């Protein structure tokens, strides 16, 4: 960020009065430009013993599998965003059941919120951002072809929780180190993942 969206003047980085961190501040009008994390929302759509995944048709990670998810839009709730993203990527209609996983990605300033959802029917197909959409049983999951660590962790938690029928909110931090992902579980999550 280089210029003020209010007056067009140059921005400087400084700690504004009554704040505790550096912000972009206009050198002329004094407007403080806050930069905040982006929220990614989506669904883990379930049909009987299977989950719906999408093979991405766009970067990043084109050709890899993911749950339907994406950035929230202005003027929508996190629930509306999850339903919209599921329709956009998989042309699937879902009933949201509950928030299921919430992961911090501090290295890219994102928060992922994934809902467990029930597919309303089997009328789904790829949307413009997907090459392929299909149901996978647990033993069919293409673990080496998953697009993101958040997807891997959400699926591992889900298949661990499913036999008991209890699906607590799973939280944690996914830290990226080049191509390697490290997962730091929340206080109630002791899942060990490779």
List key phrases describing it.
194 residues, mainly beta, Ubiquitin Ligase Nedd4, Chain: W, 2 domains, 12 strands, 13% helix, 39% strand
Structure description:
By secondary structure, the chain is mainly β. The chain has 2 domains: 1-35, Ubiquitin Ligase Nedd4, Chain: W (Single Sheet), CATH 2.20.70.10; 38-185, Nucleoside Triphosphate Pyrophosphohydrolase (Alpha-Beta Complex), CATH 3.90.79. 13% of the residues lie in helices and 39% in strands. It contains 2 helices and 12 strands, in the order E-E-E-E-E-E-E-H-E-E-E-H-E-E. The protein has helices spanning 78-90, 149-161, and strands spanning 11-14, 23-26, 32-33, 38-47, 50-56, 65-66, 69-71, 94-105, 110-119, 130-136, 170-177, 180-185. Strands 4, 5, 6, 7, 8, 9, 10, 11 and 12 form a 9-stranded mixed beta sheet that branches. A 3-stranded antiparallel beta sheet has the order 1-2-3, with no helix packed on it. Strand 5 and strand 6 (65-66) form a beta hairpin. The longest helix has 13 residues, at 78-90. It is elongated and about 60 Å long. It starts with 10 loop residues before the first strand and ends in a 9-residue tail after the last strand.
């Amino acid at each position: 960020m280089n210029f003020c969206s209010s007056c067009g003047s140059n921005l400087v980085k400084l700690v504004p009065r009554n704040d505790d961190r550096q912000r972009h501040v206009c050198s002329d009008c004094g407007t403080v430009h806050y930069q905040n994390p982006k929220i990614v929302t989506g669904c883990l759509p379930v049909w009987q013993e299977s989950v719906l995944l999408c093979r991405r048709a766009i970067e990043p990670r084109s050709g890899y599998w993911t749950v339907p998810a994406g950035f929230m839009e202005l003027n929508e709730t996190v629930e509306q965003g999850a339903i919209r993203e599921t329709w956009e990527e998989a042309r699937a209609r879902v009933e949201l059941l509950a928030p299921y996983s919430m992961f911090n990605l501090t290295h890219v300033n994102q928060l992922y919120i994934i809902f467990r959802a029930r597919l309303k029917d089997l009328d789904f197909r790829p949307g413009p951002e997907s090459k392929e959409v299909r149901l996978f049983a647990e033993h069919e999951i293409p673990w080496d072809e998953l697009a993101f660590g958040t997807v891997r962790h959400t699926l591992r938690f889900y298949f661990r929780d499913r036999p008991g029928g209890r699906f607590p909110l799973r939280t944690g931090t996914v830290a990226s180190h080049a191509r390697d992902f490290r997962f730091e579980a929340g206080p109630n999550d002791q899942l060990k993942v490779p």
